[in-house]
Amino acid sequence: FVDDDGDGIVYDDEVLLGTDDCNADFDGDGLDDDVELGLGTDPTNPDSDGDNLSDGLEVMAIGTNPLSADSDSDNVPDDVEVGADPLNPRSTDTDGIISLEPVRTSS
Fold first, then answer.
1. Which three-class secondary structure string do you get for the chain?
2. Of 13, 60, 70, 88, which sits with the fewest C-beta atoms within 10 Å of its C-beta?
3. How far, in Å, are 27, 54, 66, 67, 103 from residue 71 at the CA level?
4. At 84, phi and psi to the nearest 5?
5. pLDDT in tens, 69-88
6. Do 20 and 5 touch, CB atoms closer than 8 A?
7. Rounded mean pLDDT for each run of 10 residues along the chain, 107 residues in total
């Protein structure tokens, strides 16, 4: 079994995944492909949840969930809350004032 990039994924599996056996981080998001597989994120997409924050940024810097565009389930996407606290549903904006209620959306 050959693993030229040292990411723990052998060549045949890299072909099946659509990644490159000579590049441990195929999508360039800062997470090696084997780490992405362990997290359940997509090693061919730098932003698995589509929130405009790379998987690597979410995992290594912000602490949000790279599989959820709204990690605190307050109906405000994580990328909007960066600068506030994307893990706290009471901090729903970037004005520096903690909101008393989560943002409500009409149904």
1. CCCCCCCCCCHHHHHHHCCCCCCCCCCCCCCCHHHHHHHCCCCCCCCCCCCCCCHHHHHHHHCCCCCCCCCCCCCCCHHHHECECCCCCCCCCCCCCCCCCCCCCCC
2. 60
3. 22, 14, 8, 8, 14
4. -100, -135
5. 999 888 888 888 876 666 77
6. yes
7. 91 95 96 96 97 93 94 87 70 52 48
